Amino acid sequence: MTTASVAASTQQDQRLQLLRVLGPGHVWALGVGIVLVGEYMGWNFSVGKGGMIAGLVACWLAGLLYTCVAMIDSEVTSTVAAAGGQYAQAKHIVGPLMAFNVGLFLVMAYTMLEAANAITVGFLLDAVAGMQGHSGLDQQPFIILTVMFLAWLNYRGVLATLTFNFVITAIAFVAIIVLFLSVQLGASAVQLDFSAITSEPLPYGWLGIIAALHFGLWYYLGIEGTCQAAEEVRSPARSLPYGTMAGIITLLMAATMTWYVCSGLIPWEYLGQAGTPLFDAARVTGNSGLMVLLFIGTIFSTLASANGCINDASRAWFSMGRDRYLPTWFGAVHPHHRTPYRSIVFLVPIALIFALGAPLDQVITFSILSGLLGYTFMTFNMIMFRRKWPLGSIKRGYVHPFHPLPAILLLVLCSATYFAVFLGYGTQLIAMMCFYIIASLWFHFWRYRFVRRGDQFTMPWPRPQAY
Amino acid sequence: MAYQPPKQGLVGQIVDVFVLLMLTVGALYIPLYLGLAGAAKTPAPIDNPTWEALGQNATEQQQWAALGITDPAAASDIITARFDYSFSWMALIVMTILVVGYFVLVVRLSDREYRDVIEERFGGRR
Predict the structure, then answer these.
(1) Pseudo-torsion of CA A80, A81, A83, A84, nearest 10°?
(2) Interface predicted TM-score (ipTM) of this complex, two decimals
(3) Do A267 and B60 touch (CB under 8 A)?
(4) Of A324, A350, A430, the CB nearest to B95
(5) pLDDT of A191-234, one tens digit each?
(6) Residue extents of the structural domains in chain B
(7) What domain range includes position A330?
(8) B55 contacts in A (CB within 8 Å)?
(9) Taking the model in full, what pTM does it have?
(10) Listed residue (A258, A118, A103) closest to A180, CA to CA
């Protein structure tokens, strides 16, 4: 390593120290903030794919999958405390091509989630306009406005916006609890009805439970984003595991409450294709206060999530530009706002193409697939991490228990989810795999020549074993 | 001697961006545009549908009404629509090969690149 690069690395370390201001609560808020929208829309397609019971089993199985993700991610990220989360992990543990792919997973998962959020905003406004006697609202201007406004906020700088995000996320979370308690206390004009559990328990048989796992992921998709804050937490060893696991527990509770209220208030056939299930549940109660609260909750959760998605996707795209995995033009920072403005602007039309031209369930599937590929990567990444740097060879912020059980369990659940996506959405799966294969070949045989080799490893670790 | 990458010109950068954009939109959007994307549910409509014939009890009928659907005929397609989960084993094998093959490809090619990185960062093999 040259003197210059050592100095640069030291300088970078000092800068990172200054940024360490976040605690476990912030990590919790970051994770739950981007994910909570999953309770407000999308998860219910799991009920459509397998029925009510399958929807609940998928919710808990996906919770188990994400618990494994959180355990693995907490160990690796609390050790690889570098910007970019899983992208930085891949650079240090597997190699540049894997990092390029992980960067694409992050960008695609978050950009598609952003598109899904924008679609939901348009759908909800259309539904409310219809309830007020103005049916046939053109949703497209609202979708465009949502994406453009949030991109503009991100372009201008997001510190205040992310703080505001935490507040509106908390309101959205409280809205779910209020709906649950209100229904329990008899505020609904229509009773909870779970008769479909006995009359039609598994409309697709046991296959439906596996099929439902596809959209079960939507309850939690993005919780791994907590690890993006690795550089900014005061104590990664404590904050990341606590914050992430607390986030998972919060989402498990919210997901179960959401399933309970929606499945009890909405016929499962309607629920399986609804655009805004929690708002629909509030409509069924006939309580206008709850309807307003859940309308606000839906809007807030979608805006908070879309905002976080633009933030995360543009940072991943920016990081790849900075590392020369993409044209360096994307690696520019705005001279005044200090944001990756070119990446933010570049991703806007991609989000709009999907938000304006694709159905919600298909956009969600694209997002889930990219997330799923990322979780599959985590399984062998964890194994390689322990092999290249065994326990004791480097200082780890956190060591997750029962290794390699979480990695094996995660791989099994990921395999089941690939099959679940294949059931009904096989074309998208194959198209997406073709995309990643072609993009990988393009990177390895063309783009990699522009990458500075030594710059891809910045952690102060010893040489990996067997290399 | 550290590897010195070539400098990429503006045109080259634009071409690279265009290639990635086309790949993204093409691979993800064209299946939708051509109607190849699956997931369509198929309704199995019944003649003169009633709530009872559609298997909806009194509470569920209230729920449908609260959702703005009071005519069972309007709910018939939603209630009777089902996914078709029959699949071809050949398609499943192709999908499995694609997913596994993709990860094997990426890990193997990454490993080659990773050795360059390690060699430059830590020096030649001891």
Answers:
(1) 40
(2) 0.88
(3) yes
(4) A430
(5) 999 998 888 889 999 999 999 998 999 888 888 877 766 666 77
(6) 1-38, 40-86, 87-126
(7) 29-456
(8) 199-200
(9) 0.88
(10) A258
